[in-house]
Amino acid sequence: MAEMQSAGRGSRGRVWQSSPGNLALSVLLRPAGPVRLLGNYALVAGLALAEALPATVSLKWPNDVVLNGRKLGGVLVESAVGVAQCIDWVVIGLGANLATAPDIPGRQVAALGGAISASDCAQRVLTRLSHWLAVAEAGWAPVHAAWLAMAHQLGDELHLRVGARDVRGRFAGLAEDGGLRLEVKGVLETFASGEIWLEQRA
Length: 202
Hints:
The structure is a single chain. By secondary structure, the chain is of the alpha+beta class. Helices cover 20% and strands 37% of the residues. It has two domains: 5-148, BirA Bifunctional Protein, domain 2, CATH 3.30.930.10; 157-198, SH3 type barrels (Roll), CATH 2.30.30.100. It has helices at 40-52, 118-136, 141-148, and strands spanning 5-9, 15-18, 23-29, 58-60, 64-67, 70-81, 87-96, 157-162, 165-174, 180-184, 187-191, 195-198. Helix 1 (40-52) packs across helix 3 (141-148). The chain is globular, with a radius of gyration of 16 Å.
């Protein structure tokens, strides 16, 4: 855990800044699961972070915590593959604007204004993460259900950017590996990565 970060890394190579009072926490795991299920760790970490915060937040696939449509926190997962396509280790980086939010051109961000200290939030995150990882030992379905309860609703129109490709479709849930399922022009597609922009309802 760091008291501040000046050169942190966010998703898709973005810079992540963390001022004093904000959460900057990394967790090392050594799970024994197959690498094909790796995408679930971003979901379980986002769920743990959302449950630890003293505010009503929502989750945006795959790794954002959102407050009133603005990014409050995020998760970055890095890993290594061992023998027989099993996960060797996973490092989960968690960041949240508990005190202040950085000024990021073109990005809408939010902060909690010091409603909880970084140390208290970190302890709550670790407690919730431990809980959900224990639950996941019997399968990821309960984690998916809890995540969905705080995220997109089935049938929501989503705009997904995958590299240079723009995809628009209706949210159809999560795949077993944590991937995003979208109904695109009547065809069900599954995506392992990408960035979602929520569509505005009429």
